[in-house]
Amino acid sequence: MDLLRKALPAAVAALVTAGIAHAADPTPQDWFKNGQATVKASKKLDPVRSRAKNVILFIGDGMGISTITASRIYDGQSKGGHGEENSLSFEKFPYSALSKTYSVDQQTPDSAPTMTAMVTGVKTIGDSLSVNQYVAHSEPSASVVSANRLTTILEQAKARRLSVGVVSTARITHATPAACYAHTANRDWEADSDKPDGATVPDIAAQLIDFNFNGGIDVALGGGRTRFIPNTKLDPEYGVKGKRKDNRDLTQDWLATRTNAAYVWNLADFHSVDPNKVDHLLGLFEPSHLHYEADRVSSDKAGEPSLTEMTAKAIQILQKNGKGYFLMVEAGRIDHAHHAGNAYRALTDTQQLSEAVQAAVNATDPEETLIIVTADHSHTFTIGGYPRRGNPILGLIQGVGATSPDRDLMGLPYTTLNYANGPGYTGASYADGKKANPLQAAGPKSFTIATAPWASGSEGHLPNAYDPATGRPALTQAIVQNSNYLQESIIPLNNETHAAEDVAILATGPKAYLFRGIIEQNVIYHVMAEAFGFNH
Ligand SMILES: [Zn+2]
Q: Residues 292-340: pLDDT tens digits?
């Protein structure tokens, strides 16, 4: 405590000095003028009160506010700036609110009830997809599920003959995209082999394909190929077996039940899809989740599109419909990188989301398209300490005026980014580091790096193994800025958890001004329905 008390005033004082000292930084007059200009722009802001023709809902899965802040800094630093002054594309949107993410039975929610709230207007219980809270968890009966189904904004749009699409870097049958089109009380029933014997409720992949009134889903792009092919067939890219035991090849069913349909599973075929000729596009680019953006180009065997490329292609196809469209785009793996305790991949996937949002802004008319960017829930990810302005966001903390990294009470350096729990646990510091800290005794150890989950396939979100040590490691800049470094955590868990604080909603376009204050997450649906003019 003494250290903190002493450090704070000194840091603040030095920040003021440092701020003026750097020639590229705003002068005091600049700060004042820039503030005035922002107010002036706000006074001129004219809300678009007309209805929306199109709605695009972007979800950064697990993209809490600390993730946005850290990604903004990372993005700014990767462009050569200090970082803090940078803005991600969606941070420039004129309207924002905070979203309360709890579900009917969870203080800290999972992605199923949160997305259900956003696309149906109704909160429900954990693991449930677009069914109400009266359906028991894992309810096997199709008729019980059907009697309690909640109509989604995607289904409402389709009923009015708008075009609809879902895009994700996760499996397209994963909770967030699935809540848009599927109704089930267990988010894990993605293929029929995931269900217990006797369960009559259809699996999520089958629901995606069999939802075909008015032509069904027009564009579905993501991962999860094995959920769509029979266990008698091998995956074309990696040779793993399909997961369906009903012998259906849903990729072929997609082609058979839709007009001007295409199915693609690699990058070359994706690029060769002519949006003017294809009306129904299914793209499944991995057996499970797509790669993290950081690994996409180097690791994917047959190539896979980026979130930005998928978003742009989806809009090109959907916008052919003069009635309009609803599109959901998920950056699904921000969440997975956080679960793995690896900030680098969470930040680079958020950076990619920012580019995808910019692509949507560029491709649409702000007078007719409502664009919303939000998260389903947060993570236990923190930005702390007293790093000086422009300190590398993934680096060790170095304070204002300091010539070496700041030290904890035991004399060890530490990072700005950390987690409250997860696989990065290394134990408490000990006064006698060498005695109590095997990492220190052995020198910098790479255990978190060698066992990183992305090194061995992308099936799960769990690190395969980790080895909690009994003391804090003697970190170096080289270790903490390694792309596979797992930030330290307080509580040892295999899987870092979601967090319960509010998340941001950022919006632009028709009816975007209706987002204000701190609202329940299910209000997001009601703004989209109001924008479309549904429910009137
Ligand atoms: Zn998660």
A: 999 998 877 789 999 999 999 999 999 999 999 999 999 999 999 999 8
Looking at 144-148, 376-380, 402-406, 455-459, which range is the least confident one? 455-459
**Could you give the CA distance from residue 477 to residue 482 in angstroms, rounded to a whole number?**
8
pLDDT of residue 227: 98
pLDDT for the residue 426: 72
Average pLDDT over residues 90-117: 98
Beta carbons within 8 Å of 341's beta carbon, 6+ residues apart: 419, 422, 423, 424, 448, 463, 486, 487, 489, 496
35: left (phi over 0), alpha (psi -120 to 50) or beta: alpha
- Tokens 């998340």, located at residue: 503
Q: Which residues of 332-369 are buried (b: 16+ CB within 10 A; e: fewer)?
A: bbbbbbbbbbbbbbbbbbbbbbbbbbbbbbeebeeeeb
Residue 442 has pLDDT above 50, yes or no: no
pLDDT tens-digit readout, 451-474? 444 444 444 333 434 444 456 777
| Backbone dihedral angles phi then psi of residue 220, each to the nearest 5 degrees | -135, 115
Report yes or no: 119 and 150 within 8 Å, Cβ to Cβ. no
Q: Give distance in angstroms: CA of 332 to centre of ligand 1.
A: 9
Q: How far is the CA of 375 from the centre of ligand 1 (A)?
A: 11
In terms of Cα–Cα distance, which of 459, 455, 463 is closest to 489? 463
Extents of the domains making up the chain: 54-380+497-532, 391-496
- Name the phi and psi angles at 329, rounded to 5: -125, 125
Distance (Å, whole) CA 157 – CA 354: 26
User: What's the 339 CA to ligand 1 centre distance in angstroms?
Assistant: 7
Active-site annotation, residues? 111
206-219 confidence digits (pLDDT tens): 999 999 899 999 99
Cα–Cα distance for residue pair 471/313, rounded to 1 Å:
49
CATH for the 54-380+497-532 domain, from 3.40.720.10, 3.30.300.20, 3.30.460.10, 3.40.50.720: 3.40.720.10
Q: Are 305 and 270 in contact (CB under 8 A)?
A: yes
CA of 500 to the centre of ligand 1 (A): 12
CA distances to 7, 8, 395, 396 from 13, in Å: 10, 9, 23, 21
Residue 445 has pLDDT above 70, yes or no: no
In the three-class reduction of DSSP (H, G, I as helix; E, B as strand; rest coil), residue 350 is classed as helix
Rounded to the nearest angstrom, the gap between the alpha carbon of residue 332 and the centroid of all alpha carbons in its chain is 4
Helix, strand, or coil here: 455?
Answer: strand
CB–CB of 308/152 below 8 Å? no
**Residue 249 in this model has a pLDDT that exceeds 60:** yes
Query: What is the 262 CA–ligand 1 centroid distance (Å)?
Result: 31
